[in-house]
Design goal:
The complex is a heterodimer of chains A (116) and B (116).
Chain A lengths: L2 E3 L4 E5 L4 E3 L2 E3 L5 E8 L6 E7 L7 E2 L2 E6 L4 E6 L8 E9 L7 E3 L3 E6 L1
Parallel strand pairs in A: 2-12
Antiparallel strand pairs in A: 1-4, 3-9, 5-6, 5-10, 7-8, 8-9, 10-11, 10-12
Chain B lengths: L3 E4 L2 E4 L5 E7 L5 E7 L5 E9 L2 E4 L6 E3 L9 E3 L8 E8 L11 E2 L3 E5 L1
Parallel strand pairs in B: 2-11
Antiparallel strand pairs in B: 1-3, 3-8, 4-5, 4-9, 5-6, 7-8, 9-10, 9-11
The chains are: A mainly beta (116), B mainly beta (116).
Chain lengths: 116, 116
């Protein structure tokens, strides 16, 4: 069975500093994708970054980077130079090929608060 | 503009009544998903569909039903069998999963359902 675990319910970071949000996953699929989404208080889901299980390099998108450690089954999100607008809930998600169904599952989320 | 439209944004239901949440996309996506989110919690998968006329149960399908008669539409019915239906419901869509391809899901704005 697939599972995503985010162990940090809440995090604080000072503006302009970097922060790491943890994500571990469990899957028996040989091929899968890992995603991070941001959810502001408005409720919308904003896609941030993607990492494929066969990608050799860690994904980066602007201030977002994904620290992918396949052997440890972790896919931590690193936000550099935090901004006040980064305050939101962040979700790690995974989609695999199990049974060719492409099931997309999410973790419990981490609430990030950026302090001025 | 392409996107996913969920309607209505707010919905009130009396106990014992069925209610249908609409989800329409014009992104030409094959895959569609329904999630439930309770306050401060993660997204839990209710149902998902990879192709027209086919869908699979997610982790919390009991008390819900769906149909996928058209590629663009994936309505969710919350039946009276769902004992605690008050929640935020999110619909998403994506292209079909292929290993190594960035296939992030795009989300609608969500529907807040309240049972009164």
């Amino acid at each position: 069975a697939q599972k995503i675990t985010q162990t940090q319910p809440g995090m604080f970071v000072q503006e302009k500093e970097a922060v790491t949000l943890d994500c571990t996953y469990d899957t028996s699929d040989p091929s899968y994708g890992l995603f991070w989404y941001k959810q502001p208080s408005s409720g919308e889901m904003i896609f941030l970054i993607y990492q494929g299980s066969y990608d050799q390099q860690n994904a980066t998108e602007g201030r977002y980077s994904l620290n992918f450690q396949k052997a440890r089954k972790s896919a931590n999100l690193v936000i550099s130079a935090s901004q006040l607008g980064d305050s939101a809930m962040y979700f790690c998600a995974m989609r695999g090929l199990s049974g060719n169904t492409g099931k997309l599952i999410f973790g419990q989320g981490t609430t990030l608060q950026v302090k001025p | 503009d392409g996107g996913i439209t969920q309607s209505p944004k707010y919905l009130f239901r009396k106990e014992g009544q069925n209610v249908t949440l609409s989800c329409e996309q014009n992104l030409n996506h094959d895959a569609m998903y329904w999630y439930r989110q309770d306050p401060g919690q993660g997204l839990r998968l209710i149902y998902y569909s990879q192709i027209v006329n086919d869908f699979q149960k997610g982790d919390i399908a009991e008390g819900y039903s769906v149909s996928r008669e058209k590629k663009e539409s994936f309505p969710l019915t919350v039946t009276s069998a769902q004992k605690n239906p008050t929640a935020f419901y999110l619909c998403a869509s994506s292209i079909a999963w292929e290993a190594g391809v960035n296939t992030e899901a795009f989300f609608g704005q969500g529907t807040r359902l309240t049972v009164v």
